[in-house]
Design goal:
By secondary structure, this protein is an alpha+beta fold. It contains eleven helices and 14 strands. Bound molecules: coenzyme A.
Length: 336
C-alpha cells in the first residue's frame, strides 16, 4: 500500500478497498493474478489485474484489466516495470486492457504486441445547463484554480450549448414508447440477454459481481444511477451514470442495440438533466457514435487506453460498435 501511495499521486483506494477489489474479488483467477516484484524480501513493484468474464460471439472468454503499475523509485530503470507488464500480457487471457496509460506504458504495451485503443480514446461532453457550467468555470478561474477534468472533461468548445441559434438544428426529442426505470444489479442481469442481443463482445456480468462493482464505484465516485430502459414492457438498454447534480455527471456504461441506442441515450440525457446535472460526460465509445453525432457533442482525446487481444477477429470486433467495453467494465479509479 505504501508503494502505491508514494508513487501514484491521488491513489484512491484504502487498504481494505484494495484488498477487496484485488484478493477478495469474486472473479479473481489463479491463472491471472496481480503481480508483485520482490527484491531481498521487499516488495518493489506491483501491477493489478482485474479479471473480467466476457462473451465473444456467445463463447466465454477471459479479459484482464491492468492498472496501478508501479515500481519503487530506488528500483526504476532496471526493467522491473517492463517485466511486470510482460508477465501479465503473456498470461492466458484473451484480451487485456488499461483505461489510462502513461507514455512509458504505451511504449511498453506496443513493444509487447498491444496498441492504443483509439476507438475508446476520446471523451464526450454535453452541456445541459450552459449558464450554470460557464458560471462555475468563471468562478474557478476567478479563484485562481486550474480547470480540471472534473469541471471541463473535454478540451473543446461545446457549440451545442448555444442551442439552435448556432447549429440551426433542434436537439433530438425523446422518442415515444421508451421508459426508464431505476434498477439494481439483479434486474440488470435479468435483462442482459434481451439487451445484449446483437452484441459480439461484452462483459458477461453476474449479479454478485455487478453488485460488488456498483458498491466499489459508489464508494469512490458518489451516487450511481443505474437504470433500465424499456420499450413497452421489454428491456432494450441499461446504463450506469455517476450523478452530480449541479456538476458534471459521468456516464460509465450504456448498453443497447444499434436500433435503440439513440432512444436509450435520449432517456439518459433527460434523466441527467432532470437530476440537475450541468454537464453529462463519458467515454465516446464506438456504439455511442450516432447519439453523440446527433447531439453535436463536444469530443476530445482523453485517457490513452491500451488494449491487446491475441485473436485477430476478437481485436477487430473490439474496435466496432458491436462491442461494449466501458469504464464500468474496467479500472476502478476516480472517474472524471
Ligand atoms: C512507470 C514505472 C512503473 C516504470 O517502472 P521501471 O521499472 O522503471 O520500468 P522499466 O525499467 O522497465 O522502464 C523504464 C525506462 O527505463 C528504460 N530501461 C530499462 N532497463 C534499462 C537499463 N538497464 N538501462 C537503461 N535504461 C533502462 C526503459 O527502456 C524505459 O525507458 P522509456 O521510458 O524510454 O521507455 C515507474 O516509473 C513508476 O512506478 N512510475 C510511477 C507510477 C506510474 O506512473 N505508473 C504508470 C501508470 S499506471
Amino acid at each position: 500500500m505504501g508503494l502505491l501511495r508514494a508513487n501514484l499521486p491521488g491513489f484512491p483506494l484504502t487498504e481494505d478497498e484494495l484488498a477487496d477489489a484485488t484478493l477478495g474479488d469474486g472473479w479473481s483467477d489463479e491463472e491471472l493474478p496481480s503481480l508483485v516484484a520482490v527484491e531481498d524480501d521487499e516488495v518493489v513493484g506491483f501491477v493489478r489485474a482485474q479479471v473480467r468474464r466476457m462473451l465473444f460471439d456467445g463463447r466465454p472468454i477471459r479479459g484482464v484489466c491492468l492498472s496501478d503499475l508501479v515500481v519503487s523509485e530506488g528500483h526504476r530503470r532496471g526493467a522491473s516495470g517492463a517485466m511486470l507488464l510482460a508477465r501479465q500480457l503473456k498470461g492466458p487471457q484473451d484480451v487485456s486492457w488499461s483505461d489510462s496509460a502513461t507514455d512509458f506504458v504505451v511504449r511498453a504495451w506496443r513493444a509487447l504486441g498491444g496498441q492504443v485503443d483509439y476507438s475508446r480514446a476520446a471523451d464526450f461532453m454535453l452541456v445541459l445547463r450552459p449558464a450554470r457550467w460557464i458560471g462555475d468555470l468563471i468562478a474557478a478561474r476567478a479563484r485562481g484554480r486550474e480547470v480540471g477534468r472534473e469541471l471541463m472533461p473535454v478540451g473543446a468548445l461545446p457549440a451545442h450549448a448555444a442551442g439552435e441559434r448556432i447549429s440551426g438544428r433542434p436537439p433530438p426529442r425523446p422518442e415515444p414508447g421508451f421508459h426508464g426505470r431505476d434498477a439494481d444489479a439483479a434486474s440488470v442481469v435479468e435483462a442482459l440477454p434481451a439487451i445484449s442481443r446483437g452484441l459480439r463482445v461484452a462483459v458477461d456480468w453476474d449479479q454478485p459481481q455487478l453488485d460488488a462493482t456498483f458498491r466499489r464505484i459508489e464508494a469512490l465516485g458518489g451516487r450511481l444511477a443505474v437504470r433500465i430502459v424499456d420499450r413497452g414492457d421489454k428491456p432494450v438498454g441499461w446504463y450506469a451514470c455517476l450523478l452530480r447534480p449541479g456538476g458534471v455527471s459521468r456516464l460509465l456504461h450504456l448498453a443497447a442495440g444499434e436500433r435503440v441506442v439513440d432512444a436509450v441515450f435520449g432517456e439518459l440525457v433527460g434523466y441527467a438533466s432532470a437530476s440537475g446535472s450541468a454537464v453529462l460526460s463519458g467515454r465516446a465509445e464506438p456504439h455511442l457514435e450516432r447519439p453523440l453525432r446527433e447531439r453535436l457533442a463536444a469530443i476530445g482525446l482523453a485517457w490513452q487506453p491500451v488494449i491487446k487481444a491475441g485473436d485477430a477477429e476478437l481485436a477487430a470486433a473490439l474496435s466496432t460498435s458491436a462491442s461494449v467495453l466501458s469504464r464500468l467494465d474496467g479500472e476502478l479509479s476516480r472517474f472524471h
